[in-house]
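INFO  loader      accepted 1 record
INFO  loader      residues=254
INFO  predictor   begin
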Amino acid sequence: MAESVMLSYDQAPYEVREDISRTHEDIWQHLAGPGTWLTGERRMAIAAETRVAAACELCRRRKEALSPYALDGVHDGLGALPDNVTEMIHRIVTDPGRITRKWVDGLISGGISEPEYVETVSVIAHTICVDTFTDSLGMPRHPLPEPGQGEPSRTLPEGASTTTAWLPTIPPEKADGMLLAIYPQNVGDSPNAPHVRRAMSLVPAEAVSFFRLNDVQYLPPEAMWNVDVNPRTISKSQVELTASRVSSLNGCFY
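INFO  predictor   done
INFO  writer      dumping tokens
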């Protein structure tokens, strides 16, 4: 397990809600510990690589190219991870909108298992969420915590199938255990269980952790499905306008 992580927004130029601060601290501790498929050391190496990917020269040239697949080269990385993992991180960070199924399948056939891929995506997403928040405040990024000790559990949930995505996911009707936390209860199918909520369900602990971030940085489920429920100080229209703009800039196709 990871040691207790202290993360503070006391020096932020604006007041930060307590639920955000508390959740970010929990997230940092979650990232540092052993996951379901990756050790704490590997997870922290992924987080560190995520932070340097945006400055990679190869990624810059690929981003400017008509096709990123036309350029070979070596990433400007930290050298702590296998080349295929570094490639995965850099592409997801710098050019996610042009990822193809062939590229994903190549990583899987090259030795990254499907659940390892999902957990790596989760570490990238968690890291970017917290880092972007501190960047927007004009604060230094939080130091990454020391890796926690222990071995991953390497347990697969039941009910996964490759039907709506390139990797297996678990639909709400087959969810149990902790996955019930990300699927609103007794609400049936879409829009109450959209693909974005299913995306990391192959590794339930990561899906649940990520939506803890979603609930405090965006909206909890009861506010997403009900136009009259708004726990934020800005209007619902302002929330959705901001969310739509961010999705557009990030190439989010959900």
